[in-house]
């Protein structure tokens, strides 16, 4: 049985200490960053090694968005466009789906089966550029339809999408990697931010925002707020899929790592995410994380099933070479 957390690792291959930790703690997933990526053969070996330790059903995740957030880069992988490019393109939906479908092929070949995409945040004027061109547009309707297209492309390529950062990071005037953003917008304004997530509530997975929304819960960031998770994410947005935290090592959160993890699960999350590869911190997360069971396990299984169903549809008509030519003709891939 897995524990309900996702871990990082320090380098290009698992150390003996990491292997022992993973064998004991059995995290549901491993998330990869640039520090973990050198070549296709190396990444494939890393993902296979992780699964040989914790189990074949374990997940391997990555943030492969395109633009400035892509962990797989040249010379071994194409450079994909930032989401905002699709918002400006005449046939943005089709192109967003094609791009995501190609990314899925890249990822699946390496044993990576979860991509933390699409970004469904709707930035407002003056917001911190931590989101910026990672967002598809400034209109929530456009964000919703372009994000849906990207998610469809991933699933038809066999990769699970994770929409983020629910219920919305677009009003943050600071970077949650460095400090805790506090959003003062009223409930009516926040409804606009919820819209892309509501429109995509049928997607298999979502990642929370480390943001305080004063109108919803002035005392805790969404990741650790039962009010936000239960009343907004689950009831108002009507998302009943697999819900994971953003990285627990971000400076928006306070307290030791047991406490950070405990608060996530008390709020109602299914999975805790710890990214930086610090084993001492990861051990604390593992100690506080529950077994992956009950409703959380059911959501994992349903998420996998949803991707499998969509992948069957994707087997029918897809020409990867033609898709690359189409994107290259519009200078959307290099």
Task: Please render the helix and strand layout as text.
Blueprint: E1 3-7, H1 16-25, E2 27-32, H2 40-54, E3 59-62, E4 64-66, E5 69-70, H3 83-88, H4 92-108, E6 114-115, H5 140-156, E7 160-161, E8 163-166, E9 182-183, H6 187-199, E10 205-208, E11 212-213, H7 226-236, E12 242-247, H8 257-267, E13 271-273, H9 279-288, H10 294-314, H11 320-329
Parallel strand pairs: 1-2, 1-13, 2-3, 3-6, 6-7, 8-10, 9-11, 10-12, 12-13
Antiparallel strand pairs: 4-5
Protein name: beta-N-acetylhexosaminidase
GO molecular function: beta-N-acetylhexosaminidase activity
GO biological process, one term: peptidoglycan turnover
Q: Would you mind describing this structure in some detail?
A:
- The structure is a single chain.
- The chain is an alpha/beta fold.
- It contains eleven helices and 13 strands.
- Strands 7-6-3-2-1-13-12-10-8 form a nine-stranded parallel beta sheet. Strands 4-5 form a two-stranded antiparallel sheet.
- Strand 4 and strand 5 (69-70) form a beta hairpin.
- Helix 4 crosses helix 11 (320-329), helix 5 runs parallel beside helix 6 (187-199) and helix 8 (257-267) packs parallel to helix 9 (279-288).
- It starts with a strand and ends in a 5-residue tail after the last helix.
- The model has no long low-confidence stretch (mean pLDDT 95).
- Keywords: Glycosidase, Hydrolase.
